[in-house]
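Attaching the record inline, Q. Sequence:
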Amino acid sequence: QVQLVESGGGSVQSGGSLRLSCAASGRTSSSYVMGWFRQAPGKEREFVSAISSSGGRTYYSSSVKGRFTISGDNAKNTVWLQMNSLKPEDTAVYYCAADRAYYISTRGDDYDYWGQGTQVTVSS
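Structure, as predicted:
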């Protein structure tokens, strides 16, 4: 089992920045793809970004590419999502997820563990 805890959410104005953190505990000795997803009110959950267990591969959705950066530190069992140039449409609950796989997947159903989520609100 892996437990994931997100932090760093909050309220910012359009154009601002936030840095989300995801701390993993439990069976962290295994290799996981770590991903970020988000869900806005009334909308389906969507993929945001993911990073391979080695950190050598990253992937972003087209809606955040160039504005968000994912990074990780295996020694600290932590993954971060740096979010810059935030827009009101980025408002959502952001979830961290872990996939016991080698290749990055953008499908939420492929991920094995999920955090509770952290709210991000961007005002215009």
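The radius of gyration is 13 Å. The longest strand covers residues 18-26.

More tomorrow.
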